[in-house]
């Protein structure tokens, strides 16, 4: 799960114009995935009394790396799987550890190659250029 968020954070940092925006966007993205996504799905289920979204809910969970990690941990051992009673709720394909591992690997790999080479962003005006960093400061000699 950490690698998937790291991959998303690298993507955000390449897209953002400066470090502050990149840091803020990465934190907001984490917050959306960890808290808001599940609250929205739960809100839809509660508001519609389970009439809408009940069948598609397990598939929508694949759109969140946190949920994929959670489901992967639940379905990794038979004891935990039966204790949670999720076998009846989740389609058999999504209980396959290989499928869930593939989805998690996709969350790691897909955002990584998206920001390729050519960036049209302007240089940060506050960042010193390389020649400025190499300039030597004259030494004062005591008289």
Explain the overall architecture.
This protein has 143 residues and is mainly alpha-helical. The chain is built from seven helices and no strands. Helix 1 (2-15) runs parallel beside helix 6. The radius of gyration is 23 Å and the shape is elongated. The chain starts with a helix and ends in a 9-residue tail after the last helix.
**Fraction in beta strands:** under 5%
The count of strands amounts to: 0
Report how far apart the termini are. Answer: 62 Å
Give the low-pLDDT segments: 118-135
Structural class per helix/strand content? mainly alpha
Over all CA atoms, what is the radius of gyration? Answer: 23 Å
Topology order in helix (H) and strand (E) letters: HHHHHHH
Tell me the helix content.
55-70%
Shape: elongated
Helix and strand layout, with pairings?
Elements: H1 2-15, H2 19-47, H3 57-60, H4 65-74, H5 78-84, H6 97-109, H7 130-134
Helix pairs in contact: 1-2, 1-6, 4-6
């Amino acid at each position: 799960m950490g690698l998937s968020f790291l991959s998303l954070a690298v993507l955000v940092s390449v897209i953002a114009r400066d470090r502050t925006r990149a840091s803020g966007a990465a934190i907001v993205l984490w917050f959306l995935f960890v808290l808001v996504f599940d609250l929205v799905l739960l809100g839809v289920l509660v508001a519609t009394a389970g009439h809408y979204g009940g069948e598609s809910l397990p598939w929508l969970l694949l759109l969140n790396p946190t949920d994929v990690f959670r489901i992967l941990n639940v379905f990794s051992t038979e004891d935990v799987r039966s204790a949670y009673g999720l076998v009846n709720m989740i389609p058999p394909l999504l209980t396959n550890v290989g499928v869930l591992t593939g989805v998690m690997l996709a969350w790691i790999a897909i955002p990584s190659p998206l920001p390729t080479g050519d960036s049209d962003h302007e240089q940060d005006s506050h960042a010193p250029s390389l020649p400025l960093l190499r300039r030597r400061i004259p030494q004062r000699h005591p008289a």
